[in-house]
Structures are given as structure tokens and as C-alpha cells.
Amino acid sequence: QLEKGGEKYWQILPLGPTGYGDSPYQSFSTYAGNPYFIDLETLIEEGLLTKEECDSVDFGSNPAYVDYEKIYMGRFELLEKAFHRFVPDQAYETFVEKNKKWLEDYSLYMAIKNSLGGIAWSEWEAPLKTRQEAALEEKRVELKEQMDFICFQQYEFAKQWEKLKQYANEKGIQIIGDIPIYVAFDSADAWANPELFQFDENSTPLAVAGCPPDAFAATGQLWGNPLYRWDYHAQTGYVWWISRLRHCFTLYDVVRVDHFRGFDEYYAIPYGDKTAENGVWKKGPGIDLFHTVKKELGDVNIIAEDLGYLTESVMKLVEDTGYPGMKVLQFAFDSREESNYLPHNYPHNCVVYTGTHDNNTVRGWLDDMCEEDNALAEDYMNNADTPKDERPWEFIRLALGSVADLAVIPLQDYLCLGTEARINLPSTLGNNWKWRLVPGQVTDEMLEKMCHLNKLFGRL
Questions:
Q1: Which of 44, 81, 170, 227 has the fewest CB atoms within 10 Å of its CB?
Q2: Is 413 a residue of the active site?
Q3: Which entry of 186, 305, 306, 413 is annotated as an active-site residue?
Q4: What does the alpha-carbon distance between residue 13 and residue 34 come to, in Å, rounded to a whole number?
Q5: Pairing of strands 254-257, 207-211
Q6: Which residue of the set 53, 253, 258, 405 is catalytic?
Q7: Can you give the pLDDT at residue 310?
Q8: CA 120 to centroid of chain Cα atoms
Q9: What mean pLDDT do residues 233-250 have?
Q10: From the candidates 288, 358, 394, 405, which is the catalytic residue?
Q11: Is 358 a catalytic residue?
Q12: What's residue 398's pLDDT?
């Protein structure tokens, strides 16, 4: 369908395994894949499951929305059946050996975590929390089958993803991946590599990540992610970052790096604070990291997520890297001030979006827009006579017709869906990351319209 619509890129959310809150930006691993994405029909074809077994599991009653609780309760039971029928072969052994550096830590971390009812590693007994070798070895023996089960999941995920990526690439579609700048505190990365983070001798954070108070959040945003020891990373030649990005470029053709300004300066909040009000700005690695990336990986395709308040030094860093920044049309129509998100201000070297996963859909945004902002949008686009349910296409035309080298349109905007299809409302829990496309929603008529606009604006 992407090929038929004249699309050349497919941007996705992070693929990592998720926990409480189901956010792909709070993953148990920066390397592992989410077992929720393992295709059960493929496992049926491989003789590891039966159709009857899959049909007997309740995955939820509404195909348009993910029911994470039911998926969690049912999917791992099926995967375990498949695992017990799986006979390791040379391809599996090669995968395990090739990914040994991260897979050993991840499988042990998840096995221990599952055996303790899912509690965070910071609550484990001291010998496990601080990775004393005798305690780890004891768990490797005790939990070997559970570790093998987790390795099996990662093998199936990687095998299926590689096949999907190859299919997309053969159709002329490049995949844009998405990585958070930070890892989750409750992750294999933080547990297995405490020296990379601002931890004390007991692996307790000294400070955590977030954003300062602003017009949107009176007490700031307290994300809670561990912060990097950038001096240590520099001393090692940024080996962890190079390894992380190298892995990403086996999964994706282009990588969007979230919260890019954190490489210039990062906001450090004292650990234990209940709000972000007492944080301070500290210097990040700057261009030194990206000189190393270029030296080690070459001219890789990276998109810098440079949204929000930007200082001159952040803008200079983005410019010095040469990476395209982001422009979001939903940020353009603020009647109180001139905006560099308006298309007539774009440079060529940028990526324009109608909205991102953190925005409402265009249709939902229009419904919530204040009168002054709506008047500005109508004046700018000369579309006061267009019905609101058709206006998302006009914002799509605005993005595609801009000078931005790349335009990315959320599928919900092509479908002209409202707030019911919003992916995420930041700082909330319970209703995020649930919307799902269902068969038949994308019509041939819609694909023809997409292709026509891509051709019209020279994007085929």
C-alpha cells in the first residue's frame, strides 16, 4: 500500500520491549525487540503453533485499539508453547553468538525480573542489584530455561523484522526508526552498565532527566531516566553510543534521535525530587560525539528531533552535524507570534510533519484550536470555506508542497481521523499507544490521492 501511495519512507515508533505504561520510549532494552510484534501466523507456518491455539486466546474485543493487558496475559503463553517445540539450529546459534554482547545481559535481566514478579532491578537484593558475579552465576544456572525462552523471542523477532525490512526495501520503501536519547532506569542497559550513568556506588541515580517548568508544565517534566556520564563516554571513544547506533542501522535505514538538544545541554534534576523545578542545565558532549559517529559509521542518515525551545548553541550543533531538523505544522499557527514552523521559513534540509506521536491528529487539533489561531490558519491557507473534516488534506498539501527535503504524514491524518486516533498525550497514563489500523481502512481511492499529491509536488 505504501508503494501504491507513492511513499518512499515509513516512520515507526521505537521497537523495544515495553513495561508499565506501554510507552515505547521507556523500554527494558535499547537493543531488544518487543515480543508483541512477533507474528503468530508465521509461527503457525513454522509448525511451532496451531491456528486453534492462537484462536483460543483472547486478545481483546476491539480490533482498532490494543488491549495490552490481554495481550500480555495471552501472548507469552503462546510464545512459550512455540519455544518448547522449537529445535535450535545453526541460524539460531549464529544469532545468539552474534548478539552475545547485549543478549546475555538482557536475557538474564528479564529472567530475574520475571522470577521476582516484575519488580525493578533497583529493588533486587544487593548481590543481584550490584551484579556480584557469584549471585549472577547462580541465577544463570537456576533460570537457564527462562533465559533460553527470552533468547528465542529475540531470535524470532529479529528473523521476522529482517524479512519485513527486506520486503519494504525491495518495494523502494526506507524505514525511519526512532530512538530515545535516554534509556529507561528499569532496563538491562542501566543494570548491566552502571558505569555509563550518573549513579553512586550503590547504583542509585545522583540525578535524573526531565525538562524545566514552562508554559505547558508549571513544575516542569520529571522523566526519571538516568543521565549519562559524558566524561566517561568520551574517554571510551563513545563506544556504547557507536554500538547502539550501529545496531540501529541494522534495523532501520534512517534513525530519528529523540530530544536532540540533550547532546548540547541536558537538564539534571536531583534524584528523589517530586518535580522538575530544582533541575540545572549541564553541558552535553556536543559535536565531539558526532565527529566520532562519522569517523566510525560514516555518513549515516540521522534526523535530529530539535523541537521545543532551542538556544543558539543547540541550533549550531544541529547545523554543524548537517542532520535535518524537524518542522511540525501544528506548531506553526500561533497567532501570538511569528513562527519558524510556517513553511515559508523552512530550509531545504529539514523534515516536515503535520504532527508527531505526541500531537493530536490534525482533525482533533483543529477541533480544539482557539478562534485566533484558527483565523490565522484560514488566512495563511485560504481555506475558510473548506469543511473541517476535509482540512487535514490541506495541511498534507502544505507539508508536501513545502521545500522540506522530506515530508512525513501520520496515517491518521491521511485518514482524517479525530482525537479518538491520537497515539499519545504526554504525561498521562492509561489511554496511550493504543490506536491500531484495521484492514480496509486504507482505500484504493486514498492511495491514489496520496500518489497524486506526491507526484504533483515532486516527491515520487
A1: 170
A2: no
A3: 305
A4: 12
A5: unpaired
A6: 258
A7: 85
A8: 21
A9: 98
A10: 358
A11: yes
A12: 97
- CA angle, 92 then 94 then 99, to 5°: 100
The pTM assigned to this predicted structure is: 0.95
Catalytic, 258? Answer: yes
Cell readout for 171 is 518495494
Cell 552498565 identifies what position?
Answer: 193
Amino acid at position 440, single letter: G
Instruction: Give CA separation, 229 vs 189, 208, 259, 354, 363, in Å.
Output: 14, 12, 17, 36, 42
Per-residue pLDDT of 312-321, as tens digits, reads 999 999 999 9
| Closest among 79, 52, 240 to 150, alpha carbons compared | 79
Nearest CA to 404 out of 327, 314, 319, 339 is that of 327
Rounded CA separation 121/305 (Å): 30
Under 8 Å between Cβ of 360 and 413: no
Please give the grid coordinates belonging to residue 458: 515532486
